[in-house]
Specification:
mainly alpha, elongated
Length: about 70
């Protein structure tokens, strides 16, 4: 068995679900919709800038040559 992960824009979710539901029986054994809440997206966007400052700075240049 294989797993496929799809990332779909909210506006296209209904279309993709319709396609999945209309496939022949026994092709897809299970599917799951995982919602990313606005709070999670906002947190990720805010955190990303902070993490870039921490991990991408002059202090780390010394160690980068060993990677």
């Amino acid at each position: 068995m294989q797993t496929i992960k799809l990332k779909v824009e909210d506006s296209n979710l209904d279309i993709v679900l319709n396609i999945i539901q209309n496939l022949k029986e026994n092709i897809i054994s299970k599917y799951e919709i995982v919602n990313e809440t606005k709070e999670n997206k906002d947190f990720i966007n805010i955190s990303q800038k902070s993490l870039e400052k921490i991990w991408d700075n002059k202090e780390d240049d010394i160690y980068d040559k060993f990677l």
